[in-house]
Amino acid sequence: MQLKIEKGTFKDYSLKDISDALKKGLTENFKNVEVEVVDCPNLRDWDCPSEGISGNQKIIDVGGEPYMHDPKFIGAEFDYQEISKMIDSEKSYALGAGSGAMSCLDGHCGELIINENLITDESKSIIARVSPDRKCIVEKYSAKKHGGLGNIYYTDGKQGKVIKIKIKGRKGEQGSLPQAMRSSLSKNLNIKNNEHMSLSGVFRVLDGKIRSHVQPDYKDIKHEYYDPKQMKCVKDFLQFYEPVGPKLQCYTVLWTGDPTGGDLNLRESGEHTHFHSYEHNRDAGHYHFDVTPNEIEYEGYFNTATEVHRVNNIYKELKNKNIIE
Description:
The model has no long low-confidence stretch (mean pLDDT 97). By secondary structure, the chain is mainly beta. Helices cover 15% and strands 41% of the residues. A hairpin with a 5-residue loop joins β8 and β9 (136-140). The strands form three sheets. Strands 1, 3, 4, 5, 6, 7, 8, 9, 10 and 21 form a ten-stranded mixed sheet that branches. The chain has a nine-stranded antiparallel sheet with strand order 2-11-20-12-17-18-19-13-16, with helices on one face. The relative contact order is 0.25.
């Protein structure tokens, strides 16, 4: 597939200001909150293939729902190592969330947990699939391709200053940690005039349980669920799992909004988070939110990105096509 890449630039807020904004906002939603700027620990101790998440920090937002669910495009795939070369991030630690490449999965669908050192070719990536009896299958995944959508954070993989978050217990309504972080940043950094920012990183569910999903194979979805006119899914079709956890490791890419004012058509949710268990090979998939507010406990490390690269903006392409027709 021919790659078309557009670029946006995020505002460079200090880690101290970000940390303060997160602490203020997260305290409204969670019972016990610690947020501080620290030296990044060696993330190899968390079974990541690089020591840190600093240096040349960028995110990409690839494709979109039409590539995944419109019959005209199903099977679309992207090589995220090739994309890294095009945005000057060839020597990177790549982490994030995407769909699995069907050509690498014997035609199956799956949730891809990207955890890859593109410098040393050391892969810790995981794929989650749905079995015929609707159980979650968790396997290693070494291909450098993902399916029709993906969100990835590229860095030099160096250790540096990062934001550490520790949380115990939830008292508010927002069950998603990344969404709680997004709202905390938007509100307390007083973001306006498209001065948006991005955070990515790794966090663990130390205690408590979550709701998750894995996309089933297309042949196992027995009803129409996608509206090509709206370019979005309008009915449930995913395989949900609840409760899942604890001992989960999550990889998240989030942003407060589109720094171009909407021209990039970034992922509507403003975040994408996938996970796997760090104790066994039975749990993995797409993180939604916790389902045990009293027990939930998180710990994680996050850093900023300076740029967003929008790869193959299918929404703009289809909109322009409709205007011409």
